[in-house]
């Protein structure tokens, strides 16, 4: 069983489209994240949810909207896609209550905007 | 604010040689520190973590790291490199005092190449 799963793994779309990436974790964790990895492999936090509540919202265009229907899911919806949105998006989860925030990562979604 | 600096974006070693990947952190409080590995087209996998228990931390695949507060370093080592160690390695830091906002701040990564 995959601990943190994202779908799709690859996403190619045209500028201006709206797309969603889904994430599910079966680890029973209470905190989920979205990270963005750019073409130089730099990783940066985008959002964090704890018990379905938005905790962190870094400087991300409001075209990006996370949604957490329950603790096990954190989806990312992107409106009006731009070329610069091309990147690999990673979902991750951790258990805050246990103290140490080692995060478990999904396999990533490679988004290509053309 | 916390930050991580990884010295050397590319490191090449011969198979069987010592692996040393450098990481220095900046933090106003004793941090949690992590090393992750990323294989091509895959997600990040935790290698090891420092959580203020022991300064020498052993991880998976024969890797270990030593926390040195005086040098603000957390360098990753492995005595003998294997071809399968070729990957991208990331050092990361988190602030234990941030509660549920305790996200990871990553370094820029080091690409390890292992030469036959």
Identify the notable features of this structure and list them briefly.
heterodimer, A: 114 residues, mainly beta, 7-stranded mixed beta sheet, 4-stranded antiparallel beta sheet, 11 strands, 0% helix, 55% strand, globular, B: 116 residues, 6-stranded mixed beta sheet
Descriptive notes:
The complex is a heterodimer of chains A (about 110) and B (about 120). By secondary structure, chain A is mainly β. Chain A has strands at about 5, 10-15, 20-25, 30-35, 45-50, 55, 65-70, 75-80, 85-95, 105, 110-114. In chain A, the strands form two sheets. In chain A, strands 2, 4, 5, 6, 9, 10 and 11 form a seven-stranded mixed sheet that branches. Chain B has strands at about 5, 10-15, 20, 25, 30-40, 45-50, 55-60, 65-70, 75-80, 85-95, 105, 110-115. In chain B, the strands form three sheets. In chain B, strands 2, 5, 6, 10, 11 and 12 form a six-stranded mixed sheet that branches. In chain B, strands 3-9-8-7 form a four-stranded antiparallel sheet, with no helix packed on it. In chain B, strands 1-4 form a two-stranded antiparallel ribbon. The radius of gyration of chain B is 14 Å and the shape is globular. Chains A and B meet through strand 4, strand 5 and strand 10 of A and strand 5, strand 6, strand 10 and strand 11 of B.
Helix content of chain B: under 10%
Which regions of chain A contain 5 or more consecutive residues with pLDDT less than 50?
A: none
Structural class of chain A: mainly beta
Secondary structure: number of strands of chain A: 11
By secondary-structure content and strand pairing, the structural class of chain B works out as: mainly beta
Q: Count of DSSP helices of chain B?
A: 0
């Amino acid at each position: 069983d995959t601990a943190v799963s994202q779908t799709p793994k690859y996403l190619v779309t045209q500028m201006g489209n709206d797309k969603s990436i889904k994430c599910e974790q079966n680890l029973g964790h209470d905190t989920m994240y979205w990270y963005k990895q750019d073409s130089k492999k730099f990783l940066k936090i985008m959002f964090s949810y704890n018990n379905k509540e938005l905790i962190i919202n870094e400087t991300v265009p409001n075209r990006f909207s996370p949604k957490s229907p329950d603790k096990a899911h954190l989806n990312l919806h992107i409106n009006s896609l731009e070329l610069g949105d091309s990147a690999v998006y990673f979902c991750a989860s951790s258990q805050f209550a246990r103290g140490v925030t080692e995060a478990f990562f999904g396999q990533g979604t490679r988004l290509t905007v053309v | 604010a916390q930050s991580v600096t990884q010295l050397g974006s590319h490191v090449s070693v011969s198979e069987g040689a010592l692996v040393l990947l450098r990481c220095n952190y900046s933090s106003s409080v004793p941090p949690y520190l992590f090393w992750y590995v990323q294989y091509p087209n895959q997600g990040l996998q935790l290698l090891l973590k420092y959580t203020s228990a022991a300064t020498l931390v052993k991880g998976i695949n024969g890797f270990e790291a030593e926390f040195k507060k005086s040098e603000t370093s957390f360098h990753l080592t492995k005595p003998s490199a294997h071809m399968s160690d070729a990957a991208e390695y990331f050092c990361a830091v988190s602030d234990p005092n941030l509660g549920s906002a305790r996200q990871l701040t990553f370094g820029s990564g080091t690409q390890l190449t292992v030469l036959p």
